[in-house]
Every structure is written in C-alpha cells, then in structure tokens.
Amino acid sequence: MPLQNRVDPFGVLFRTPARGTMLGNRGGALHNIHREIVRSYTCPRWLICLLEFKGRRRSVMSPGRYTELFFLDEAVALSAGHRPCAECRRERFNAFRRAWGEMLLAPELDAVLHRARIDHKGAKVIYQDKLAVLPDGCFVAIEDAAHLVWGDALRLWTSEGYTRRIARTAGPALVTVLTPEPTVRCLRNGYHPQLHESV
C-alpha cells in the first residue's frame, strides 16, 4: 500500500501510487514507527525541496526523522501552504522573498504563512476572491475540486496531473481561494511556480 505522504492543494496528506515532482516537509516527523501519519505538522516551517540534492540518500519515513512529503508540482505545494527551501532551492527562496516585497528571514516568513494557512482549530484558511483578478499559479476550489488558475483557463488537479480544461470566463465570478493570501501576492508580484508537464 502506498504511504500517506502525498499532499493535495487543500493541504491534505493522502495515499497514491502516483509520483510527485517535488519533495517537502513540515518541520519534523509526522509519522510513527509504523510509518503511519499521526499529525499534520510539527512546526511552522513548511518547505518545498528538490527531489535530489547533493547526492543525499535516505529511507522515506525513517523512525525519528522528518516525514518526506511529495507534491505534483510547486503550485500544489504553495497552495498547501509551503514555501521554497532556503538550502536546496536558495535561488527560488530568494525569488519568493523578493516577490513578497520584503527580504524577511525564513522564520519571519514562516510565521506569517502559518497564520495564513491554518486557523486556530487546525483547519485550512480559505477565502473568497474574484476569479478574474487571481494570478497564474494559484488554486481555487470549484464544487470541492481543486483547479489551477493558468492563463485563460482553469485546470482540474488530479494526483497524476492536470486534466479537464475550463475557460476562465466559464468559471464562477467569485471563487474559494486555496492558496494562502501572502503567497497569492507573491504570485501576483512575479513569482512563477514550477509546474507539472501536464499543464
């Protein structure tokens, strides 16, 4: 059975045999010794990393080590509330900070993002906005399904890739935005996420 370590645009951890193109973590071990998920995060540092970095090798969900999470692409990871890693993706981390508008330190970014991704009850923070003004790269929920906003279309997310294409003008005027507000501002200010080839 696949491990419960894939992340969807809602930030939910789920099982699938499909592979992701990006790695990440939420600061520590989310799993127990049986490699079962027992918590959704351990700290506000939610990262988006490279699948390979400096030849490092490790077993997924090793006891006492951080839980490796996988995303279809960077847009999904951003929607879930993660940000680029300052070590393995330094150039992307700096681009994200420039788009943020201030060159904040990583812990400062994490604190702001954490308040924008999770409420005091542990639920994902969502909000309403006009579809016409949303930047490319963010995710919206339409009829409980996640859609990537890209160009003049909305692309339906699946664990294997993006499928059905809907014209942006055919979507509702007001939508539920899944990507945290600070990240949407970064996308609006020119941060371009790395996308799955199916786009």
Features:
single chain, 199 residues, alpha+beta, SH3 type barrels, 2 domains, 6-stranded antiparallel beta sheet
Protein model, in words:
The strands form three sheets. This protein has a six-stranded antiparallel beta sheet. A four-stranded mixed beta sheet has the order 5-3-4-6. The chain contains four helices and twelve strands. The protein starts with 5 loop residues before the first strand and ends in an 11-residue tail after the last helix. It has two domains: 112 residues, no CATH class; 62 residues, SH3 type barrels. The protein is an alpha+beta fold and 199 residues long. The mean pLDDT is 94. The longest helix has 12 residues.
Over all CA atoms, what is the radius of gyration?
16 Å
| Average pLDDT reading | 94
Shape: globular
N- and C-termini, Cα separation: 28 Å
Largest sheet: 6 strands, antiparallel
Strand percentage:
15-25%
